[in-house]
Amino acid sequence: MSNMEEAYFNYFDIRIPSDAVADCSHSGRCDEDVEYWHSFVDFSHISDADLELELDECGADWDLSDRRDNELRLLWLAACNIREEQNVCDIEDAARLEEGNG
User: Fold this and answer.
1) Do the beta carbons of residue 47 and residue 22 sit within 8 Å?
2) What contacts 24+ positions apart, CB below 8 Å, involve 79-88?
3) Where are the alpha helices (DSSP H) in 1-102?
4) 3-state secondary structure string, 24-49?
5) How many domains does the chain have?
6) Segment 10-52, tens digit of pLDDT
7) What is the residue range of 56's domain?
8) Is 13 helix (H, G, I), strand (E, B) or coil?
9) Three-state DSSP class for residue 3
């Protein structure tokens, strides 16, 4: 199994395999990739209420009545958040190197 990455949300944190980050956050539909990686992620520490609250605060017009669907949404969001953070760090590292502060 690959290393794990952590995504931080308002009501909990979640750890996902590093390999899942790119697979679940690429452009286009990621449904099949998210389905594949779902079984590799432990969601048991997240209550239904916290999961629904977190997803509701995203502002999307989702039906939040199905726990598994919500876990899939959360995995997708976690992967996107981690990838975005990695890209920001890469850009900041490159800027520091260009300035000679790396």
Assistant:
1) no
2) 79/7, 79/16, 79/20, 79/21, 79/22, 79/23, 79/24, 79/25, 79/30, 79/34, 80/24, 80/25, 81/7, 81/8, 82/5, 82/6, 82/7, 82/16, 82/21, 82/25, 83/21, 83/22, 83/25, 86/21
3) 18-23, 31-38, 48-56, 67-99
4) CCCCCCCHHHHHHHHCCCCCCCCCHH
5) 1
6) 999 999 999 999 999 988 999 999 999 999 999 999 999 999 9
7) 4-99
8) strand
9) coil
DSSP, collapsed to helix, strand or coil, labels residue 8 as: strand
Q: How many CB atoms lie within 10 A of CB 69?
A: 13
Rounded to an integer, what distance in angstroms lies between the CA atom of residue 66 and that of residue 47? 13
What does the block give as tokens for 101?
A: 């502060």
Predicted structure pTM score? 0.83
**Cα 16 to Cα 74: distance, rounded to the nearest angstrom:** 11
Q: Which residue has the tokens 């996107």?
A: 80
pLDDT at site 33: 97
